[in-house]
Amino acid sequence: MANRIFVFIALAIVVLPASAQQDTAAYQLRSVEVFGKPAEVYAAGSRVTTIDSAYRQTYNSSSLADALQARTPVYFKSYGVSGLSSVSFRGTNASQTAVLWNGLNIGLPTLGLSDFSTLPLSGFGDISVQSGSAAATYGSGAIGGAVLLSSPNYTGKGFGLDVKQEASSFGRYFSNGNINYSSGKLQLGLGAYLRNAENNFTYKDLSRFGKPERTEEHAAQEQYGFIQDLTYQLAENTKIGLHSWYTFADRELQPAMGSARGAEQRDQNLRLMTKLEHESNWGKTDVKLAYFRDYLNYTNNSLNSVANVETYQLQAEQTYTKGADWSLRGGVNLQHFVAENDGYAGTKQENRAAVFALFRYDPTETIDLSLNLRQAIVEDYNPAPTPSFGLNWKFYQHEQHQLFLKGNVSGSYRVPTLNDRFWAGAGNPDLKPEQGWSEEAGLRHLFIVGNTLLLETEATAYHMLVDNWIQWTPNATGLWRPVNLHKVRAMGLELSQGLNATIGTIKLTGSAGYTYTTSEQVAVYEGQGDKGKQLMYVPRHKGVLATGINYKNWQLHTDLNFTGLRYTTNSETSHLDSFMLVNVALSKQMQLGQGRLIVVVRSDNITNEVYQTMAYHAMPLRGYTFSLRFLIP
After folding, report:
1. Range of the domain at 27
2. Residue 263 burial by CB count (10 A; 0-12/13-18/19+): exposed, middle or buried?
3. Alpha helices, DSSP H, located in 159-285
4. Given CB 3.0 to 4.6 Å as the disulfide criterion, which of 69, 348, 512, 626 pairs with 12?
5. Residue spans of alpha helices (H) in 407-450
6. How far, in Å, CA of 487 to CA of 465, rounded?
7. CATH value at residue 144
8. Does some domain include residue 257?
């Protein structure tokens, strides 16, 4: 593993400077602006990254899991190619990551997490990732980090069209279509996608003597979805929005190696939202009203389980901004859950509420401060107030160099899920909310040469304590129940570098990210525990490296993803080996009248790496993809 880490760091050092010198006055201005993105306004001192548009143009048929794994050093656990895909930030688990769509949490109330394999990359506008505790801003679950998704924003004039057809190895096909219209007052977008996959790849069966080669026969899946976004300017200072998002997935859950045919699962997710924006002398008023329905049907040879959860959500915010000096946002969030689940004793309901205040203050041109506070109110629970304080300080600027000192201290919490509370015979009404504290500090360096070169380097160290960590574990009689099992400490170092440059007619991009993470129990409340040992499925080493070359109408993209050794038990008695994935894509853009045709050929896992993200769940070897995409304008 040490050799692979050395190779990754060496590649980062060699390739990134080689990718020097990209252009873009437009993106350069946004990068220099510390709080240029909406997600960063009240997040001083925190790490906020985005998925770049060049990657999304080439890989828009991918899932959100694929995109985040390729472009951010976070770790995803996937139960094979057709199973649940969940994320881990800074040594936490999947239920300790908040996922928000247009500012509202869409995590499953039953499980407390989101399945990233069912979230299509093609349906979003901006995609941002905030690392570290952010509960003061985003509420329950934002302990390790938050993923922020927004609807597309159609800013052009007239009609637009985007049609794509893609075919890949292992019987995979993807179709996508989007039509949009924009005028002075109206923006309208309608989109649909369809993904079919046999996933009939070959693999070595590690559970059998001699590791015989087999073909996966039980991982087929069908996914489709519809997206509608409408924004209308009612008056000069008033705007309404209507957003709809439906996804469907019918899949065979890939069985573990050596197992018989696995289970099947159907997921249906409907998300409806209406939004009102109004500006007055009192600032900007935002009111969001949403209805979510999450349906899951799990079947195997002996079980047919159905879960159906309806979520009603209201969020009202008032933002007052005074020039460029300070901005204050106050608001309230209300949630009502109605859950029907074969595992519950009847229909269950729960109410949650939260009030929050977010404050940004820039006392000088070189100092940015944020101070946030949230108080949650949940039936039968009393989470402590969660504050956060952040700082960005540009303490040095000379010629092309700028240096920033950043830091953040944040509280966090997570309320038990509906399954934790209401599962018949196992739900635990005595659970306490998880509570945590996170501190981070770092340096950020910008090197800018006009509009020809932008080099951004950042280093962050963090420390996190999470108490009353909830985990399902067997009791003395062998019954699995959720308990506040232990206190966990996570510490680590994050390094990143981004580069954009122009050399004549050639535009080059490069980015690299590396994380070192330790996550271990420091106190155990039941049993002996495994204090001082790395938590299962948390890699100490994780890194990504991406490069792009744009010459006239040609583009070449490469992505390298390194994942270190992971233990499959908290006692460190078994593990999965480290692995490195390399993906390459070549595309050409051609003008056809008023439209553009983009042809893409790519190869995933080009080095034929054998790897697993979950024990005994095979992943595909090298595969190929060919796609045609037509856009107007």
Report:
1. 2-197+380-632
2. middle
3. none
4. 512
5. 418-422
6. 7
7. 2.40.170
8. no
